[in-house]
């Protein structure tokens, strides 16, 4: 019984330890989740793994200078990146080292719009955006 | 208290000379508006408005959907704030120091868009290709790659 309780506490505390939680980020994720379900009622829950695949995939539809997210953000989202077109330094995307990330809805939406068109050559779906944030929140 | 030694006095004088208020001809008034800093300074440095005349900024803020090949669209309210700041602090408004030097190359009524094409820029940037292709530089518009004080308007 006690062991089960301890396990329950540990499991409940897990997201706090693993994911840097922020009410504003949670709200952004909830919004993308609602939009994702509206587009496809059978859409699964967001997954960090899907987000990581999105992050690392080399696309062919966008600007060749930004074939993947890693072109600017490097293969490690915990380190600073550099805009591949302008040379401008970019703060890390990983929430663990940059807790401000994904906390302002307008900024998040603007950046997804610009970056998805540049990298993928199209807008990202709410499902993709949610996966991406979920991945970065655990990084 | 001991009087300042000549060396210290010289140092103090040099420091004074290096401060923006007295940097004189080389200084470009930096961007002091938070919206301009954020919206214009994410993908590239928020370039000081003194480098272009007001009509250039008006044109630029009206064509953000094709911003040097990029879609840099912004909401109308943000555009209005940024355009007001850039035109109020444009080169032909400031018209002194470095801004005046840039403006002397702008044709009457001309609307240049690239600061890096101004002869005053060009005459100081004769570098080998290898310099421009340095991974830290990437583009000619990446002022801060070499000018550590660029954001503060110091281009020494």
Structure, described:
The complex is a heterodimer of chains A (139) and B (156). Chain A has 139 residues and is mainly α. Chain A has a single domain, classed as Cytochrome Bc1 Complex, Chain D, domain 2 (Orthogonal Bundle). Chain A contains six helices and two strands. In chain A, strands 1-2 form a two-stranded antiparallel sheet. The longest helix of chain A is centred in the first third of the chain and has 17 residues, at 2-18. Chain A is globular, with a radius of gyration of 16 Å. In chain B, α3 (54-61) packs antiparallel against α4 (76-88). Chain B has one domain (24-152). By secondary structure, chain B is mainly alpha-helical. The model of chain B is unreliable at 12-23 (pLDDT under 50). Helix content of chain B is 38%, strand content 0%. Chain B has helices at residues 6-18, 34-40, 54-61, 76-88, 91-94, 97-103, 119-122, 129-132. Chain B is globular, with a radius of gyration of 18 Å. Chains A and B meet through α5 of A and loops of B.
Summarize the structure.
Chain A is mainly alpha-helical and 139 residues long. Chain A contains six helices and two strands.
